[in-house]
Design goal:
globular, alpha+beta, 5 helices, 31% helix, 8 strands
Amino acid sequence: MLALKIDSTKSFMNHLLVADTFDNFLLAEATVSTAHTYQIDGHINKEFFSSQEDTDTSGIQYNFSEWKDMKPLCFNLIKGKRTPLFFKFVLHLKPEAVGKLMATGACSVPSEQIKALVLTIKYDGTQVVLTTGSAFQTFVMSKEPDTIWDKALQQFLARKGIDYELL
């Protein structure tokens, strides 16, 4: 697990809510606290789509909504003259990206064992902190996936020009 404090909140928010920087992620959950507190469960309710006539749900490939689809909604909740009091986004790297990342890192843990590589983004009214995490299908002794994920995230942020400090 890795915790990173973002140096420029304004620049990071542009990456998060406007640019396509985080479009390779899925939204597991979101909480945004402004004048009201909004909570979003990113799980897709496939029953909603299957109840409609001639709608095939086989095209829905993830259990969570894609960040690129949820980003406008989250942006609308946050935008305004005042900064939010708090927000938290829990993002999961898309499964195909997890497999590719683990293969590139020569990980000995099969990617099918990895349930999620998680990126939690929290703003407390003063700073943005990113925290990495992982979830597995079963107990795994190896810390290899965590190490690969932590290193990959740092490289990703560097490539995108997002400055941070290790906490």
